[in-house]
Amino acid sequence: MTELKIVLGHSVAHQVVFVGPFGVGKTTALRVISDIPVVNTDVDSSEAMLDSTVQGKTTTTAAFDYGEWRFPDGTQVALIGVPGQERFEAMWDVMLPRSSAIVLWLYGDRDPKLAECRKWMNALAQRKAVARLAIAVTRMPADSEAALEPYRELIAQYHPLAPVITADPRESSDVLQAITMALTSPYAPIEQL
Ligand SMILES: Nc1nc2c(ncn2[C@@H]2O[C@H](COP(=O)(O)OP(=O)(O)OP(=O)(O)O)[C@@H](O)[C@H]2O)c(=O)[nH]1
Ligand SMILES: [Mg+2]
Asked: Which fold has domain 2-189?
């Protein structure tokens, strides 16, 4: 733990936390964008192998992922991926209060989509998270504006003007857009309004 404190303590201007369900692509997104080798705590997971929605995934994040990304002007952003599995939720309470922005990654192709979205927003609201926030919906065609409307209506009940976009965690430009939108959204409490 001492070593991790040193890593997390250096002079980053922002910290962005990736949250979202098991297997949605948090670790993938972090790896794709990080300028440094990602500190990763993935372990073999029998659930991962059994979960038919996440084909080919054999590991899960047990503590957190850590990476960094630099804006062209040199501003450094620390990127943290926290585990999607509920039994690892203690990591949230460590990471969320330190974060300047949150990206909530969601599945766009499995039902009930909005119930899952609500569950995650409630989890953030319960922790009294105060943050900039963006929602990145994965596994959707790029021209899915109409399909994002129900997400926008739901998110607006929790956080003013949080952007909702489609993003593929395997594409660096999409991940970058999600991070930038999170960092430029209003800083506000996440609570059921
Ligand atoms: N087909 C498809 N696969 C995707 C997409 N996004 C992510 N994936 C795949 O889904 C898997 C996501 O795995 P991880 O990145 O480990 O997921 P995670 O959110 O870190 O999972 P936990 O840490 O265990 O909660 C990877 O195999 C990705 O390649 C997508 O848009 N389409
Ligand atoms: Mg992970």
From this structure: Rossmann fold (3.40.50)
